[in-house]
Structure formats: C-alpha cells, structure tokens
Amino acid sequence: MKPECFKNRLYYGIFLPVIAVSGFVIDSPYYLQVLTFIGINTLLTIGLNMLMGYAGQISLGHAAFYGIGAYTTTILTVHFDFSPWAALPCTLVVTGMVAFLVGLPMLKLTGYYLGMGTLGFGMIVYVLFREWSHVTGGSSGMVGIPSLSLGPVSFSDSRNYFYLVWMIVLVCIVFCQRLIQSRVGRALRSISDSENAAKALGVDTKDLKLKIFILSALFAAMAGFLYAHLVTFISPGSFDFMVSIRMVTMVVIGGMASIWGALLGASVLTLLPECLHAFADFEMVVYGLILMLIMIFMPRGLTRGLMDIYERSVSKQI
Amino acid sequence: MLNIQNLKCYHGRIQAIKGVDLFIGKGELVTLVGANGSGKSTLVQAVCGLLNEWKGEIRFENELLAGLKPSSIVKRGISMVPEGRMIFSTLSVLDNLKLGAYTRYRKKRMAEAVENDLQMVLDLFPVLKDRASQPAGTLSGGEQQMLAIGRALMARPKLLVLDEPSVGLAPLLVRKILSTLEQLRNQGLTILLIEQNAHAALEIADRGYVIETGRVVLEGAASDLLNDEELKKVYLGKDYCESYPKNFIPLRCCN
Ligand SMILES: Nc1ncnc2c1ncn2[C@@H]1O[C@H](COP(=O)(O)OP(=O)(O)OP(=O)(O)O)[C@@H](O)[C@H]1O
Ligand SMILES: [Mg+2]
After folding, report:
1. Considering the entire predicted model, what is its pTM?
2. How many Å apart are CA B122 and CA B178, to the nearest integer?
3. Any CB–CB contact under 8 A between A308 and chain B?
4. Does the distance separating the beta carbons of B80 and A189 come in below 8 Å?
C-alpha cells in the first residue's frame, strides 16, 4: 500500500509541474499542438486501458468510438448549427448508446473472438464514415468545425487548448484512480483475473463489463470531440483500423492496468513519429524496431520497466 | 435450509446430474462425496446459479432459486469456495477478501460490519494477516485455500459450500482446514462440503451423501456411512481398515 501511494505522489509530482511549465515556456504553436495531441491520445489510452488492462477485455475497434465522437460533434455543429458545448452532451449520449448496443451482444465473446468482433465493428464504422457521404462528407471529410471558446477565452489559441485538454486529462486520471480503488474497481480487476470466480462471489460480470465498455467509449468520444474542435477538419482516415491498433499499442507499451502507463504510452507513441522524421524512408522501420525493443526488454510496459530499473539501481547503491 | 428435489443438470447434451434429492438442515455440516466426474461440481454450480441448464427444484429457506443470478443467490446467503480455489492472483490478499463482501458493501453503514468481518477472518487464518498486501498469487497452495475460504466467509453466508477444499494439500493442512470448518459449524454456520477425501470428510460431518454418475447411491448419518461396508470398499480403499489407524492423524489433536 505504502510504496504504491508514494509512487502515485511521485507521478503527480512529475506530471503537474511538467504540464504547467511546458504550457508556460513553450511558445511554438506546433509544439503546443503536439503536446495537446498527447493529451488527447492519453484520454483514448486511459479509456482503453480501463477496458483492456483492468477488465481484461480487448477491443481492436476503439477508433470507431473516437470517430463517432468526432463525427457526431462535427455533424451537429456544422450541419445543425449547434454550439460545441451543446453538442458535447449529445456526442457523449450518442456514443454511449452505440457502445451499449454494440457491447450488449459483443461482450459475450472473450479473448481472440472479442478481438475479432470489435475489429469487425471498427471496420464497419470506418466504411460508414467513408461511404455515407451526404452526412459525413465521404472520404474527403468535413471542414469548418467551429473552434471552442468559453466566454472571453478562445481555445483557438494553442496554449489555451493545451491547458483545456490537460485539465480534462487530469480530471480523468483522478476519476479513474478513484474508480479503480473503489469496490467496483476491485470487482473490475477481478474479472481479468478469473471471471468465473468473480461471478461466484456475486459480481455481475456481464453488467460490469458492459458498463466499463461504455465508459471507455465515452473517453474515446471525449477525445474525438477535442480532436475535432482542435483540428477543425476531419476525415475517415483519422479513425481507421491503424488508429485502433495504435491505441492498443499505447496501452501495451505504457503498461497494462496502469493509468500513468497510459500517459507514458501515449506520450511515447505520439512523440516518436515526430522525432523520427529525420529517418525519412526508414521512419516506420525505426519506429517498429523501437517498439520491439521496448517489448522485449520491458514486457510489462514502460512504467513498470523503468520503475524496475530505478529500483534495481537504488538497491545496488545500498 | 437447502432443499433439492429431483435435480437434473445438463452440460449441453450431457446430463451430469440425473435426479438428485438432497437436504441440508440449519446448522448441519453435510458432505457430498463421489468419484471424479460424478457430478459434484455440477450440483454446486446449479445451487450457486452458475449453471443455466437444470430442471427440478432447489429451495433455499423455502424460496425457489430457479432463474436467480449468482449475485442474488450470494445476497440470499449462499457463498461458495469454488473448485481449484480460483483466487484472484494479481489482486492483494486484502482485495481478495474485500471482494468476498462485494454484495454487502453497497450501503455505507455496512462498511463497518465488513471491517469487523475482515478482522474475524484474519483472526481465523492468521497467516493471511502477515500477507495482507501481497498479491494473492504469491501465496502457497494451502494459504490460497484459506484465502478462498476466508473470501467466501466475507459474504456472511448462511450456507457455505466448499468444492473440494483439500485438493493438493498436505494431510496436516487438510486436518487444519477441516477442523476450521468444524469450528465454523459449531458457531452455527451451515456447511455443504464436497470431498474426494471421503473418510476425512465423514469424520467431521453430520450427514453424508455419496454420489455416483449423477445419482445419489448412498446417504445417511456420517457415522453410519463411515461403517458402511460398501462405501469402505469403493471409496475408502479395500485395505483402508488395516492401514488407516497407523497413518491417521486424529483430528482433535491438531489445532
Ligand atoms: N462444461 C462442461 N461441458 C461438458 N461437460 C461437462 C462440463 N463440466 C462437467 N462436465 C461433465 O459433467 C460430468 C460431471 O462433472 P463434474 O465436474 O460435476 O464432476 P465432479 O464430481 O465435480 O468431478 P471432480 O471430482 O473431478 O471435480 C462429467 O462427466 C464432466 O465431463
Ligand atoms: Mg468437481
């Protein structure tokens, strides 16, 4: 209990100042936007980690919810002249409903079969985005998404958007940590360990899995909302199969069942491509190589891997 | 307390239980013994709501259990120690125990009662106390079994069902676990104990049932069953009568 508590404080102690300071000192809108993308990806990863890491249910189609979030707010604001803040609750409700309807039959599956099922769902939604052109704008996407503002504060300013996204990330981190330590969170963790035993103890595993599926879809929808109003232009390509896979990769690289891992995984996978531009044609090769090396040397993810290294070096000094 | 009539259970096309009547009175320790594959676990699963396909009648405190979810059955007071322990190996020992009280935690005022029961369970199995924050998967087999029992007790059951709690444990530990069960029975808990280890189970039980390929072939007071010639031959081993006194560690000698 104690060391966990300490580690958590340590992570907050690193996280909060880094965010506050980088928003303050970085002036380049480009870098601020990269950091904002890390925040959006963190939201995605935390949500997916709740489902994969804690409840042990894989989803290979999570980009669908990300996309539904982005498209719902876009359609409402562009076609129907909703204000973004009015579109937000609608976006969450729509995505939640879809997650409910999809999760109800889908979560009867387990393991690889659930992977296949969600993969199929992701593809269907992607095709829908691309082909349902008079609503979604087809493969060329939609433009003219209004940017956010709140009273006198305009979020078209990169710095403001940066702080907005990271505030939301912070709220989500705190929320998820509290959830995991609660009675329900315990039950959630027990499902990935042994679903049958959890059932025998009176945990309604079917119900709980569905709820967490919806929760993770809502996180993705929130990320989609923030994405759409950040770039003010969306197209189906941002929500395809590869995006789903990248989300799973962020979870695994950061560390399953670790909230801070989600943050780290999202950071690494967002920054890596930016840093690898120098390799030009070999970018993807180097990228894949780095991922492979991380997994070989830190199979439990970056957070735990780095922690192990740190602990080993400390115990050597003593 | 538990009244089963003409129970038939199915695993798909296989009929694993073929018409069983079983009765457990309040405060009784009843044991159900039988060979591998005779249908013991299937029966337990039906009682706990973990099996969908069954016919017949299961009554708990005069209420029919048909169609109830496992969670409702736990809430009514039946809690089980599943076959193979099935502890949550990545969760801490404490979290495992707290999960046992999952159906009770809802209300704020229950938190204190749960806290008391936690203390009670840790007193019952002191080994768990030292390991409270350790992942449960790092416990030894015997400790895991105690954890599984403690976890089931956290639900404050009226009826505790144990599916082969002695599998893979050293004789001394089996004795310890059985004597714990006896102690719990003496405190008023009703217990259904599934066992392969027929002799040891009948030693502490009030009554026993012998089940064979889905049917009850023998039932009666535990002391009668212990002396039953038929049972001795089949389950206790032909020459158990000769070898038994030498190997036997009397139950009441070990705490
Ligand atoms: N999920 C299942 N699907 C199909 N058949 C099953 C299933 N579970 C059990 N059976 C069959 O039902 C019968 C009874 O099994 P059960 O597990 O109840 O036996 P048991 O008495 O508990 O045995 P053991 O002492 O080995 O635990 C067996 O013939 C078994 O093959
Ligand atoms: Mg069995």
Report:
1. 0.89
2. 17
3. no
4. no
Q: A3-317: which CATH number, 1.10.600, 1.10.1660, 2.60.40, 1.10.3470?
A: 1.10.3470
Q: Do A196 and B151 touch (CB under 8 A)?
A: no
Q: Torsion angle, CA of B139/B145/B146/B150, rounded to 10 degrees?
A: 110
Strands B14-24 and B2-11: antiparallel
To the nearest whole percent, how much of chain A has pLDDT over 70?
99
Query: Which residues in A149-176 are b (16+ Cβ under 10 Å) and which e?
Result: beeeeebeebebbbbbbbebbeebbeeb
Examine the pLDDT at A161 and tell me if it is beyond 70. yes
Instruction: Quote ipTM for the complex.
Output: 0.84
B247 lines ligand 1 (CB under 6 A): no
In chain B, residues 25-54 whose CB comes closer than 8 Å to chain A: 48, 50
If DSSP states are collapsed to H, E and C, what string results for B9-72?
EEECCEEEEEEEEEEECCCCEEEEEECCCCCHHHHHHHHCCCCCCEEEEEEECCEECCCCCHHH
Q: Give the gyration radius of chain B's Cα atoms.
A: 18
Q: What is the pLDDT of residue A130?
A: 95
Q: Residue B65 above 50 pLDDT?
A: yes
What are the pLDDT digits (tens) for A38-60? 999 999 999 999 999 999 999 99
B47 lines ligand 1 (CB under 6 A): no
Around Cβ A256, how many Cβ atoms within 10 Å? 18
pLDDT on residue B243:
43
Average pLDDT score over residue span A169-185: 94
Domain ranges of chain B: 1-77+158-255, 80-156
Interhelix angle A84-106/A205-231, rounded to 10 degrees, is: 140
| Ligand 1 atom with minimal separation from the B44 CA | 18
Mean pLDDT for all residues in chain A: 92
What's the pLDDT band for B241 if we cut at 50, 70, 90? very low
Residue A231: pLDDT band with limits 50, 70, 90? very high
Q: What is the mean pLDDT of residues A103-127?
A: 95
Q: How many CB pairs under 8 A join A and B?
A: 66
CATH code, B1-77+158-255: 3.40.50.300
Residue type (1 letter), A245: I
Is A314 in the B-facing interface, judged by CB distances under 8 Å?
A: no
Q: Enumerate the residues of chain A whose CB falls inside 8 A of the CB of residue B73.
A: 202
Residues contacting A92, CB < 8 A, separation 6+? A69, A218, A221, A222
pLDDT at A278: 82
- Cβ separation A200–B69 shorter than 8 A: no
